Amino acid sequence: MATEQDSSYAQGFGQVSRTAGLVFRYLLLAATMFGIVTLAVLLVYVANDAIQPLTADAGWHLTFFLTLVLPTILVGGALYRRNREALKLGGMVVGALLVSLLFSGGVAIVFVDIIPPLTGFSYAVGLAVAVAGTVLLTKYETQIPFTARVAATGLLFFLSLFGVPGYFHSIPELVQQAPVVPTDWIILTLVLGGLTALVVGQYIARVREDTKAGVAAGASALVLTALGAIVGPFVGIDANALVVVTAVSFVPTAAYAGGSVITREELKPGLVFAATVIVGALVGAVAVDALGFAGPQAWTDWQFLTSSHSGSAENAGLYPAIGGSILLMVTVAALSFPLGVGAAVYLEEYAPDNRFTRFIDVNISNLAGVPSVVYGLLGLGVFVTYLGQATGTVLIGGATLALLILPIVIISSREAIRSVPNDMRQASYGMGATRWQTVRNVVLPEAFPGILTGTILALGRAIGETAPLIMIGAPNVVFNLPTELSSKVSAMPLQVYAWSSLFASEDFYTKAVPAGVVVLLAVLLAMNSIAIVLRNKYESET
Amino acid sequence: MTGTNDPTNDEMLVETDVSDGLSAAESSVTDDAETVIESKDINVWYGDDHALTDISMEIPENSVTAMIGPSGCGKSTFLRCINRMNDLIDVARVEGDLTLRGKNVYDDDVDPVALRRRVGMVFQKPNPFPKSIYDNVVYGLKIQGIDGDYDQIVEDSLKRAALWDEVKDRLHESGLDLSGGQQQRLCIARAIATDPEVLLMDEPASALDPVATSQIEDLVEELAEDYTVVIVTHNMQQAARISDKTAVFLTGGELVEFDDTQKIFENPESQRVEDYITGKFG
């Protein structure tokens, strides 16, 4: 009786048609898939051209399948079922290793080939002295008025870095003229290894909540880096290169893995996954070498990464362009970060809401959409024609690209600053904080990850720009690494463009261009992955 | 107790005696208490919106003064007049005199930042900084440049805020990891760490559950021994329980009645107040 009543009652509701909704939903799906699939096909096509996996022996594929792919799938599958968090950590460790290896390549270019280690060392010492002086000043003399302290700090930095010509030697000069100078690898170990040790030590000390553990970790990081230089020559790797790779890649990755396991014991199995992948790759490499299987005839190979342009596609390389892109990015970051973040903080925290600021608001949004070739024209007009700089140098290339991404940096930084809850500003003002104290202590620390993410993504746009560099007269082909801000510079996208236009031939189209594109994309992905990791960390914390 | 004097305190608000002897004599129960805050014909506009009309009242020292009234009646606005937080709103305009220990805080020579260093504030929604518990408490000390034994001040402030026992082992964990009630007590500890003269509380318990609310209420009563507490609340029972004096604001931004809490709740003079308290209106 009751059920009968229920069913008739339920029938009484009738049906509501969802046809239109379903059609809409699948149309949206189709639109999404169209874009993604097209891009994926394009990328696979380019990667296939650049790496040519099918040219490898079947034995080569089989060996790597057995040593790397199969164990990875097995271990990964087991972890996926039991401990997904640990698998995530394992993946992060492998990813961190890959990305940091890429970055160590960049660091090696900058600190071994572009800046001679001795010069770098001398300036590092100068900076260290100035920083130490500043720290002492702020720690023991709190009575000095603000302006005097700023002046003293500025003077300290200027004197220790530049000295007074003719009267007073700067610290870099003194170091460079020292009768005994350490060899390159010792310098690199001290500077890069020392920085890494500092960071690693602090990280471990925080994780373990134990200063001694931090000191021990820092010391062992330094020892490991030095060990890299000693072991390097025996296994046929340049000591300097191995020091850089150890300091920038191996030690930080190991510290990250160790630190994560210390904070969360249950993640330990994740390290098994990471070890499976790394050991599998190494074993595979040794095995194919021993068994004599030929690998793929990839165009993106060591030769391509380390040589400069050549008339024949087989011998052409991207090295000066990679170095050029790195130098450009450093210049762009140094110029656009302070300018962009400064403007964003002013517009969000200080500027009154009036017609003028609204006018600026609208124009910043418009500038973000201006085509890059227009910025190239601007750079040419302002820096070359008006200021009389030489064409195509690192400085004006970087300055032009910095102008290009400045609106994007401003917009994303403003977004990050705006997302700081107003409650926190109120709390700070309510405590009797001035505006500067509120910005400095509450707003900026909270907005910083967002600001950094936005800046990295903007740098990702700058690294792929070609048109502005062409407009400011950057040469298509550069055979040497740029070593100064006033050296002529080429960049990765410009070199690829040159290969596909000036040297257009079947060979360059099918070999050098895809290889260059793959390198450019790898660098771009590495940069973006840092932005993504930062954003995830930031989101999980709040 | 905690903290030492900030040098800026002495430069501002020099007069400490009560300028108007009459006002102290007028209040009936706390006859001997000094008037700390006195407002005379305070009017506030938000743009064209007249939020407060001719508010005049005297708030006595070391007591709890509650402000009750329906939503939008201007009680929070009045609270924010006391430490000039309304200055932060572009369209807000304040007219009239509001004196803190005899010094008009709206005089041209008063620095609102220095004023806020002497008037602590606790907000409706718990708003600890995304820093450690320890750093939250010492925030005010650091920005105000107060030297002292920070560890001791943190312990004292957290003890006074009845939070010490719950957090003493995790002072270096984030303040955001605490529960809502704990966060609000952390905000109170933060506000009293710098030893202000007046503590303003803007519906401090409205976002909390009953247990946390009663903890905050107990705390407010204890704090009134050392501080002058002005508390805005929606909750009439809360006002009746914890306050010495009660101000009833009604719609239109007027102060309808201000008297001893007992009198307001048992025998209000105004019919509108009686209607409001008995639930016929508002």
From TrEMBL, chain A:
<feature type="transmembrane region" description="Helical">
    <location>
        <begin position="367"/>
        <end position="387"/>
    </location>
</feature>
<feature type="transmembrane region" description="Helical">
    <location>
        <begin position="59"/>
        <end position="80"/>
    </location>
</feature>
<dbReference type="InterPro" id="IPR035906">
    <property type="entry name" value="MetI-like_sf"/>
</dbReference>
<feature type="transmembrane region" description="Helical">
    <location>
        <begin position="26"/>
        <end position="47"/>
    </location>
</feature>
<feature type="transmembrane region" description="Helical">
    <location>
        <begin position="319"/>
        <end position="347"/>
    </location>
</feature>
<feature type="transmembrane region" description="Helical">
    <location>
        <begin position="271"/>
        <end position="299"/>
    </location>
</feature>
<feature type="domain" description="ABC transmembrane type-1">
    <location>
        <begin position="322"/>
        <end position="531"/>
    </location>
</feature>
<feature type="transmembrane region" description="Helical">
    <location>
        <begin position="512"/>
        <end position="534"/>
    </location>
</feature>
<feature type="transmembrane region" description="Helical">
    <location>
        <begin position="213"/>
        <end position="235"/>
    </location>
</feature>
<keyword id="KW-1133">Transmembrane helix</keyword>
<keyword id="KW-1003">Cell membrane</keyword>
<dbReference type="InterPro" id="IPR005672">
    <property type="entry name" value="Phosphate_PstA"/>
</dbReference>
<dbReference type="InterPro" id="IPR000515">
    <property type="entry name" value="MetI-like"/>
</dbReference>
<protein>
    <recommendedName>
        <fullName>Phosphate transport system permease protein PstA</fullName>
    </recommendedName>
</protein>
<keyword id="KW-0472">Membrane</keyword>
<feature type="transmembrane region" description="Helical">
    <location>
        <begin position="241"/>
        <end position="259"/>
    </location>
</feature>
<keyword id="KW-0813">Transport</keyword>
<feature type="transmembrane region" description="Helical">
    <location>
        <begin position="180"/>
        <end position="201"/>
    </location>
</feature>
<feature type="transmembrane region" description="Helical">
    <location>
        <begin position="92"/>
        <end position="115"/>
    </location>
</feature>
<dbReference type="Pfam" id="PF00528">
    <property type="entry name" value="BPD_transp_1"/>
</dbReference>
<comment type="similarity">
    <text>Belongs to the binding-protein-dependent transport system permease family. CysTW subfamily.</text>
</comment>
<feature type="transmembrane region" description="Helical">
    <location>
        <begin position="121"/>
        <end position="138"/>
    </location>
</feature>
TrEMBL record, chain B:
<keyword id="KW-0547">Nucleotide-binding</keyword>
<dbReference type="InterPro" id="IPR005670">
    <property type="entry name" value="PstB-like"/>
</dbReference>
<feature type="domain" description="ABC transporter">
    <location>
        <begin position="37"/>
        <end position="277"/>
    </location>
</feature>
<keyword id="KW-0067">ATP-binding</keyword>
<dbReference type="InterPro" id="IPR017871">
    <property type="entry name" value="ABC_transporter-like_CS"/>
</dbReference>
<dbReference type="Pfam" id="PF00005">
    <property type="entry name" value="ABC_tran"/>
</dbReference>
<dbReference type="GO" id="GO:0005524">
    <property type="term" value="F:ATP binding"/>
</dbReference>
<dbReference type="InterPro" id="IPR003439">
    <property type="entry name" value="ABC_transporter-like_ATP-bd"/>
</dbReference>
<keyword id="KW-0813">Transport</keyword>
<keyword id="KW-1003">Cell membrane</keyword>
<dbReference type="InterPro" id="IPR027417">
    <property type="entry name" value="P-loop_NTPase"/>
</dbReference>
<keyword id="KW-0472">Membrane</keyword>
<protein>
    <submittedName>
        <fullName>Phosphate ABC transporter ATP-binding protein PstB</fullName>
    </submittedName>
</protein>
<dbReference type="InterPro" id="IPR003593">
    <property type="entry name" value="AAA+_ATPase"/>
</dbReference>
